[in-house]
Fold these 4 entries.
Entry 1:
Amino acid sequence: MEMLSGAEMVVRSLQDEGIEHIFGYPGGSVLDIYDAIFQSDKIEHYLVRHEQAAVHMADAYSRATGKVGVVLVTAGPGATNCITGIATAYMDSIPLVVLSGQVPTHWIGDDAFQETDMIGVSRPVVKHSFSCRTAEEIPIAIKKAFYIASTGRPGPVVIDLPKDVQNPLNKFPYEYPKSVSLRSYSPTLSGHRGQIKRAVAALLSAKKPVLYVGGGSIIANASKQVLELAEKLNLPVTNTLMGLGAFPGEHKQFIGMLGMHGTYEANRSMHNADLIFSAGARFDDRVTNNVDKFCPNAKIMQIDIDPTSISKNIHADLPIVGSIEIVLQQMLDLLEETKATNDAESINAWWDQINEWRAKDCLAYKTSETHIKPQQVIQCLYKVTKGDAIVTSDVGQHQMVAAQYYPFKEPRQWINSGGAGTMGFGLPAAMGCKIAFPDRPVVCVTGDGSIQMNIQELSTCMQYNIPVVILLLNNRSLGMVKQWQKMFYGGRQSHSYMDSVPDFVKLSEAYNHIGIKVDTIDQLEPALVRAFELKDRVVFVDVAIDPEEQVFPMQVKFGSMEDMYLSPTERTDA
Amino acid sequence: MRSIISVLLENEPGALARVVGLFAQRSYNIESLTVSPTNDLTLSRMTITTEVDCSATLEQMMKQLHKLVDVLRVSELTEGSHVERELMLLKVRTLNSEVREEIKRTADIYRGQIVDITPSLYTIQLTGACSKLDAFIATIGETSEIVEVVRSGVCGIARGEKALRG
């Protein structure tokens, strides 16, 4: 059998797992692993400028491809800098394997230099973690980590690797396990037959159904089944922020995103539905608004691979545990077998009602002679990219506007931090996507607050030539904070104004990138056209937008789903 | 409502921390917790007593426990017929022979045993359901000064055929 050191085992195990790209930052506790990487020609490593960005890159790489993202960092601060990234991935169920160095085993517990209990620090935000105390444990721990990270409800897994375990002088027999099974872990994939029958019957008898599709449908690669079921039964479909792209944004049955900044028609349809069929969504507080007023007349049907997501916030009348793809296919097969269908007349009447709500055109906005509106920027982006770009975003107003005004055609096209709401996610995320898909246009839609949270990655872009487009909706403020202060804090703008945003054009040029400043609407489209034509350069487009523009619709706090502000002055009848 | 949850989990480093962390993280309350390896040394058996406000919370708690990768089985004991026991060691001051006799009598009534004696102290061992131990503490407290109490937390098992096995 081949003899390898612990450090070599780490690299070989990753290779044998089929990993091509890893993201990380070296340091004392992982020098042996980095030395093994130096001698490997199969793994491409990207050196970031801050470990948080490495995790976001791996995370977005995973979101865009469906593969597991891999991160390698050193002990102590290297590891703790990953926590925000790990928490981000955890909240959105993204499979990651994070390898962190650790002080030698005989120093653990002695407060050694750069010692942090990474297993302890990361525990609340990982799916699982391993600490390898001998080199022989490494291959099996890595195999298990990939298995756990990528199956069931995916999530991040941390592997702690003490320095002495990596020692290049100690060689051990190496064999990478072909498969792994854990007696305490076996996710349910197929739906219970009885429940499938009941679900189909409920769906067929519903007069006002809504198909509520979340990020779980994207993770499970269930878009085909979602589309087929929706079309077969002429169901109205709404996507969560995380589900955008799971159902095509320009499909006539798509009624928009739902929730806090969802469309008028999506939120009213939910509230007035008699059946809500949730596929991979978790009734998050940003969707339900006040749970006591949530969809009073609806029977709730929920598919999720994670039993804890079922009936957590809203009681599910008809729960189904399983993979969305498999369960929906089971339902489609049953429909095919029985040739049963729903009552076209009542569904048409439901559509008449929905179309009446649609006619409100809640995403219409007033343009201005003097200012560029953020909505115009996103619509222009859609036009210039023909709707084909991978769009990443940070967190705030720009994120909501991108979600509302860029109708995503397909899954894994919209990459954002939904659950954790992590500012600073967008740029490294765009880089991760570009590394996964070098030939596709990738754009990071960001704000002047968010972009400065990981702006150092412009340097990583320079080192590896990762030509992403950065589209900054620059309102010189923390827009969403300001919006809340305007609406709920008597307009007191406490620390939501950026008094000194840098000259982003000059900053980009300092990193040998191209910066374009856009101040007027007529400069916008040419700037974006140029940005996407320059395929081998990072282009930073800094668009000065109306600093007073707010995001609407917006649900009224403590209200039902259909309680919304439609503009600063218009509110739905509560 | 009071619940007793039995958990069968991998006997591995960190497994207990994951369970305790889960309770803290989701603000679930732990009244008592006992854990020890089983006859199969690769498995640990844990008994958690908790106070929950409704059955939905209990259901969520059990699902969250089961979601932990190390956890094999989770079961609630109070739903069915079960046996629960707790061990208590209690140290009391024995000032004179009258008090000593009274303590001995009370311990006998509760089927407790005196396991250690000094000229001025008795240490009593008592097992039973929590309510019995509570009652004993109250009774003995009227006779003498309680110096120290240590309770093991509840151990529980279902009656009959029902079993939690790997």
Note: The interface with chain B takes residues 119-120, 123-124, 127-129, 131, 148, 182-185, 306-308, 311-312, 315 of chain A (CB under 8 Å).
Entry 2:
Amino acid sequence: MKKNRLKNETEACGECGKTARKGKPPFRLLDFVIIAAVVLISLAPLLFLPKDEGSTVVITWHGEEIYRGSITKDQTVVTPDGLNTIVIENGSVRMENAECRDRICVRSGAASPSHPIVCLPNRVVVTVIGTEEVDSGTW
Amino acid sequence: MVKPGSFSPTKKLALAALIAAAAIIVHTVEALLPPLIPGIPVRLGLANVFTLLALMLLGAPYAAAVAIVRCVVAVLITGAVSQLPYSLAGALLSFAAMFMLEPLRCRGRLSAVGESVFGAFAFNLGQLGVGILIAGRAMFFYFPVMSLLSVPTGIFTGLIAHYIFKVLSRNFNAEQNR
């Protein structure tokens, strides 16, 4: 019986000269090791990565980034020329005050990843970079 | 008795072409199917069966050729050129991973299933790498899901490759011993 199997394995084809064993499930010990390793590797980021802080607020003024921080941190930011006041509060960000004619930015309300606040006359842009709002439809 | 793995180069080339053709068809048909889970780009990866099969039957150079030819031609057929970097990176990384494990399988420490699971994992890793390069770091949040799903899909494709290989090698042996 043992001889038979040996013969079976040596008269094989294939690059390394092994046929599959007859009539037995293909699984070997190392298979399970690999499967367990893959499962562990895929779960590892969930355990060890720092918890997602949510969205990030980025404020640019005259093309330069003047503020970057989590949306959960309450903060009032005044642009260097003192014309615009941005308030981050209760997980949302809005343009509190702006010294310009139309004040469109003030009226546009809270910013979101798909809806940044722009003040054209004073060249201020408030964007929210979301981590969870990936456009899954694209993929 | 014929020595193991001693197909003539012509036969190897013909077999590789045959395997590549089958891989292209499977890849194309699979591309037509909607994703298994909406929003997460996970497929069964049936086309990877053929890379593994070529690796087991014909050796590494032929397997790499099958992987590359399959990706390029399948993209030309489906017309989704933007997917080429994803599938190419995935297929090449998965080939590299399975190539690394091939000696272990030869010594009988491992079956095609483990090889295929690792290959599927590497495939997702390659796709994710390209995704991160193209679409930004947010893609990384797909990693746990995609990586976990590579286990069942890998087992499935590995079993397919295993049984195809079994039947094929039995036939080739019969042919050679005739």
Note: Chain B touches chain A through 59 residues (CB under 8 Å).
Entry 3:
Amino acid sequence: MLTRRIIPCLDVLAGRVVKGIHFKDLTDAGDPAALAMEYMNEGADELVFLDISASSDKRETMTEWVSSVADRLFIPFTVGGGISGPDQARNLIALGADKISLNTSAVIEPDLIFRCASLLGSQAVVLAVDVKRSEDGRWEVFIRGGTTPTGVDLISWVKRGQSLGCGEILLTSMDSDGTRDGYDTSCIEAVCGSVSVPVIASGGAGNTRHFIDAFNSGADAALAASVFHFGSIRIPDLKKDLASAGIPVRIEEVFS
Amino acid sequence: MIGIIDYGSGNVGNIRRALDFLKRESAVLECPPSERSSMPDALILPGVGAFGPAMSKIESSGWREALDLWIHEGRPIIGICLGMQLLCEASEEDSTIKGLGIFEGNALKLEGTKKLPHIGWNTVTWPGSSKSAYYYFVHSFALPICRDTLAVTSVDSCVFTSIALKDRVLGFQFHPERSGSTGLDLLGESMRKLGV
């Protein structure tokens, strides 16, 4: 049976993971590869890395940490953060990333989705969308790390993204993000009802119930950051609880 | 030494790293080795993307004849994901070009699934055995159940061949190199079973 995926998200700044404090035994808690290994061994199904650096040497540091993650990680990982062209996307895949995620640059130049998908295959292109609920009950797409409204409607944007060739949607609700009050389930339902590609829910995870709600709303995968980084939810416990609630998850006999 | 075929459509690096982890010597081969003395012990045929362009590249790089001969001589080869589909007779994805014709039947678009592509960890079961395990899949096409089916996987109402075996030709529809320690174990065990 196809299982629902649990995806920790790690923010990388100048080659270092920020907020990765949960693994106390790690001598270097900021090393992307070391953290990635811990999450893989705990049973994470996939990882997402967002490079939030804005420095001029970003490409160089990205090359370094992406290759070091690829050297040690044997589960899929996605890299995002300021990817603005197909060549950059191809380099990241060549370094060993399984997928790249596009956000701001795709809204500014939607054809980038098509060009990346043609070059790398749809399976390698994740469309990341940051949204905020508007007063009329719809959702508006925001760019530049959620700082800039675009006037673009979420549903028409994800449909367009799918027709341009993205293989997955990473949906972040800015209203829920950071609240730990749960995912925006109506937003997940609206997107899952509009596209046929898999949807990764993001923003608002605080407890196991929230993951169950996200999956019951149609999400194929659920992404979270702080609950994993700070250790308030451990992946093996979460998966056990999800399985008891009837959500199909991958539980290996031994994580080693 | 394991030869990883690089025809421009495969995730060669991740397979190479998996073989490194398994302590298997490997080499990336852009074209077939010209001397028999430099032949690898086994080949891995990776693949991501679309069937048509991948098969065309295999033809234009001289790999088609080399692979026909390789398989005819009973040498071992493992196809992964699209690489497994290339070993089928043809694919519904592109009717203008033939596959390598080892596994019986054509790769068909998955039917009866709620979502496509089929992405994520799914169960692989070996019929007639209690063995089953999770592996990572990313694909929209697959080989139906056929004479060469070794293990199967289902998504919603669709059942397909997730591992095929014909003589010393093995195909994985999923990515053992991206399926954690379970996947690496399977890859290592499969090579041993193929006598590599």
Note: Chain B has a mean pLDDT of 95.
Entry 4:
Amino acid sequence: MTPLSSGGFPANARDALADEKLQAALVNVRTIFRGNRTRAVAATPEFEALRDAGAAVKRHVVENLDAYLERFIAAAEARGGVVHLCADAASARETIAAICRGEGAKLVTKGKSMVTEEIGLNPYLESQGFTPVETDLGEYIVQLRGEPPSHIIAPACHVKKEQVAETFRAAHPHRPAERDLSTHEALLAEARAELRARFLSADVGITGANLLIAETGDAVLVTNEGNGDLTQSLPRCHIVVASIEKLVPTLEDAATVLRVLGRSATGQAASSYTTLSGGVAQPGERGGPAACHVVILDNGRSAMLGGKYEEMLRCIRCGACINHCPIFAAVGGHAYGAVYVGPMGSVLTPLLQSLEEARHLPHACTMCGRCAEVCPMKIPLPDLLRRLREETHAAALTSARSRMGLRLWTFLAQHPSLYRGAGRLAAAALRLAGRRAGALRRWPLAGGWTRFRDLPVPQGGGFVARAYRGDRTGRAAEGDGADGQ
Amino acid sequence: MTAPSPLPRRVALFATCLVETFRPAVGFAAIKLLRDAGLTVAVPPGQTCCGQPSFNSGDREGAKRLAKRVIAEFEDYDAVVVPSGSCAGMIREHYPALFADDAQWGPRAARLSAKTHELTAFLVDICGIETVEVERSASAAYHDSCSARREMKVLSQPRKLLASVDGLELREIDEPEECCGFGGTFCVKNPEISGHMVEEKAKAALATGADMLLAGDMGCLLNIAGRLRRMGSAMEVRHVAEVLAGDTQTPGIAEPEE
């Protein structure tokens, strides 16, 4: 798998736009996910109130994170769990590998977890001699393809089913070559058959968590495939990997967040499986792991507390902002070169990794505002992106040309006569070149515009001076324009 | 919405950069509409840019310098009217945030914010106007700019006024919430993505089969008109104010002049 690089965004985006298979796959994201959410919200008259309640829960948690972390640890350990607090990706990876080693593990099954993508767990486990197997269908597909997920809740949304069939044929050579893999059902049946044996023979199961409940010490995982349950209940050891902001105070609060999560993510009132897991199998219980570990990752999050990006810690990873982002719809997830993609990713990547490396991402946005409109946690994503733009500007990470342009513009706009003169001059030049045609196919220094569209020719003459045309007392001339002051 | 208190008596028009440079007709149409509503209209001569390009490019200090000029130039009027959801949104939504920690400019920004309106919303919501007395036999698709739709909550107002144009048949564009890809400097910083987005929007506009494409923001209009021309379409593209003011004799955006 090639390492992710958000610095390559401009080139990645160009490649993505030219990739016909990807473009065909992205149409589904745009239509299906958006339509499902719209219908679910329309069927939930109290949705706005739920959003407010959910956001309030998370706001409260973020403001009292230390207290809820302590409470969670106490509750989880009272049930036989072991909680590991990891400051960064490396310590989380090493902690998890040490647990696996202690279990004498070979095969490690995994439920869907973006945090394990964030810490680069799979390549690390492989390097340590373990065999991690993703069990979410989408994750399984991208793992076989040697790709990262392209979407936080739909990891393989960039591939069409024909590509999945090719992947399966290459990955499952022990199956008959002539088998029919032309339908979704056939692909699903094959993945299920392949994964079943892995579920049963795994030594350790690793799952992510959508929520950690402080009062009970439970981790909550939602899936639509039930793979999370098989991952966490069959092996003798279960490891939950979650980031610190997943905490909620109570079961009741978890229910509030889950009600907006499903609707925002996939348009479901509830995901097919909502599973709570906490601690080890108690005496008399018939299932459950003998060992349970909860790895809680910080990795830059506590540094966001109390700062101008704190609101991002409310994010519940529903993917609604991604599904509604026109930039994501155009280029898909891999173009971002990051684990987290779309609007939430363009905020998180510079904060969790490096502003310099991710400098393009906050600018890959038209500020259309649709992400904030659909965010169940009411995170003002465009405002956060704009703050990151301010940091790229302050750190001179934007292009010299754009910085020069801004300086010139700010200067002109502070001198109305010069500003209007420059505008009229530009308009006159454009009119000279193109008034007969109405629009120009190219124009010096306007290549970014004219590569994809004509440049409309201005009417010319300016407006303010003509409309005003007043004397120094502020009285405007009759007829042409305004009524003076 | 019912009109609150007495009508503003002295209204200032903030024309915007793109109207100043590309399409003065929109400014004159706005003046006509405001005068027809019985208002006295001023065009403060010191006006230039609202500062949004600087603000959205991360140059907060540059944006503040331009915002202070706009505040000083416009704060003495009863209302500020802008033929753009985007520039109106900058003043209304973002000026107060720009000066949130400023004891002097903060309150001035907040006062200006409270009396700044997008043109069609001002006519309908504040002036209580529901109809215009003009005629145009054509079908028209109306494109909502993102800032008009989301920041300024302008959705029904332009449609209400357009519905009163004699002979005009209004059509809706599929996926109306989708951005056209203009995004200010986005369109030149991310040209391929912007080009892809405007292609989709132009196709959706053409799919309505309407004679005209209208919108309330010059940024979207220049973007979509430019793409329509590149695609070989002659669809007439205009700012909504032109149609409402009865000014459809001048060539549309990107149309040849005789």
Note: Residues 131-244 of chain B form a domain with the Rossmann fold fold (CATH 3.40.50.11810).
